[in-house]
Amino acid sequence: MLKELALLSIVALMLAVGVGMASADGGGINDGRINTFDVASGVAIYYTYGDGYVTDEDGNQVLTEIITGIEVWYATEAGNGVKLFELSDSQIDKAVNASSSATVGIGGGHGYYLGYDRVNEAFYVYGPNYLFQWEDHYEVAG
Hints:
The protein contains 2 helices and 7 strands, in the order αβββαββββ. The longest helix has 16 residues, at 2-17. Helices cover 18% and strands 43% of the residues. β5 and β6 (122-127) form a beta hairpin. By secondary structure, it is an alpha+beta fold. It has one domain. The protein has a 4-stranded antiparallel β-sheet, sandwiched between helices.
C-alpha cells in the first residue's frame, strides 16, 4: 500500500510538472513507436503484435493481427537499442484488474515503469526525467 501511494505521488508530481511530456498524435520518427514525436528522450515505446481472434460485426471469430503487449526501449549514446522491459496484454490486464486505484503501476525495469490512469483511460511510461502518456485507443487494458 505504501509503495503504491509513493508511486501515485511520483506520477501526480510528474503529471503536474509535465517532465518530458509529448503528444502521440502524428509525425516524428516513423518506426512504429507510440511516442513518435518524443525524439529527444531516447525512450521508444511500442505495441507488440501477434495473431489472435476477434469477433467481427456479424459475430464471427476472425483470425487477425492483434496487440499482444507493450515494450519499452532505450537508445544509448552509441545508438544501440536496449530493451528496458516488455509486458504482455495478459500481464497488463491482470495488474489493471487487480487494483481499483485511479492509477495503477503495472510493471517495468531498469528504472522505467508502465502505469495506467483509469480516469483518463491512458497508459503512461515514466522514469528518470521522463514521462509520456497516451490514450488506450486499442483497449489494451481491460
